[in-house]
Amino acid sequence: MNHSKLKILSYVTALRPYQWVKNLLLFFPAVVSIQPFSTDMFKTLCISFIAFCLVASSGYLFNDLLDLEVDRNHPDKKTRPLAAGQISVLYSKILIPVLLIIAFLIAFLFVNIKFFLILSVYFLLTAIYSLFLKRKMIVDILTLAILYTARIIAGGFAVDLQLSVWLLAFSMFVFLSLAAVKRLAELVENASIGQKNSVGRSYEVTDIAIIEGVSLVSGYISVLVVVLHIFTEATQEYYSRPEILLVICPIIIYWITRMILLTHRGQMHHDPILFSLRDNTSRLSAFLIILIAIIAKVS
């Protein structure tokens, strides 16, 4: 492979395209909505997905520029294109506004103003997180949960769907749990190498038990939200056998508890969402949840 192709590949890698899978959350409100999933809705969400990926990548570049010196001394992050010196710092600084301009033009011209606004809020919160909030304990994981929930809100806004308060509550609690797992994984790794503090974070290895508790409690509250939602009037009317949906709850409890146990044992990738996508047990859990929902609908 010649030098120019390697350079292009390095810039693409710096955009972290493997993280774009998280933006599929934009489709979630349409998938779980009682309204029919139309072709126009799908097209709009695909366009929204592209815009969101561009904004997210600009945020990753911005964060890498801020953490450049720290990443160069990190055992894993030192291989990132910026930290490894594979791409230009100047060109990276230029690329950020270019990505943002393209994304916001797509949002404004091809989606709608509400999506444009939530996309703007998402980027601002991402920037504030990178500048300040990621160094504030507890605030950092709350911010991550909000950023994930913002994707769901954006998906609803893109296709003018009314967002259920139950959906948003579930999202906040389950993603708070996963954000805590992410911090827990870092702390467990630090403990394994005898490092007492997290670099660039406000946590110490002595906080492991507290962070585990936050993750467990948040995850279990998300299950409680599911139970309460099952017994709402809308759910009871939409599903033929809504009581079957209760079977989903032990699956979520098992999945959350297993994720935390694996993290406690040092077997968790730093990003629990990407870990889940590669983990057969997590994929089986997701399949069973979808299957149960279908059975509850058609029975």
In short:
This protein has helices spanning 3-14, 28-32, 39-66, 68-72, 89-111, 113-131, 139-158, 165-192, 208-230, 233-238, 248-264, 272-278, 280-298. By secondary structure, the protein is an all-alpha fold. Helix 6 (113-131) packs antiparallel against helix 7.
Tell me about this structure.
- The protein is 71% helix and 0% strand.
- With 299 residues, the protein is mainly alpha-helical.
- It has two domains: 146 residues, UbiA prenyltransferase (Tetracycline Repressor, domain 2), CATH 1.10.357.140; 136 residues.
- α3 runs antiparallel to α5, α6 packs antiparallel against α7 and α8 runs antiparallel to α9.
- One of its GO terms (cellular component) is plasma membrane.
- One of its GO terms (biological process) is glycolipid biosynthetic process.
- It comes from marine metagenome.
Q: Name the CATH superfamily assignment of the largest domain.
A: UbiA prenyltransferase
The secondary-structure class comes to mainly alpha
Helical segment count: 13
Runs in which pLDDT lies below 50 for 5 or more consecutive residues are none
CATH architecture verdict of the largest domain: Orthogonal Bundle
User: Remind me, CATH topology of the largest domain?
Assistant: Tetracycline Repressor, domain 2
Give the domain tally.
2
Radius of gyration: 20 Å
* Name of the CATH class of the largest domain: Mainly Alpha
The average pLDDT value, as a whole number, equals 91
> What would the principal axes of the Cα set say about the shape?
globular
* Helix/strand order, N-terminal first: HHHHHHHHHHHHH
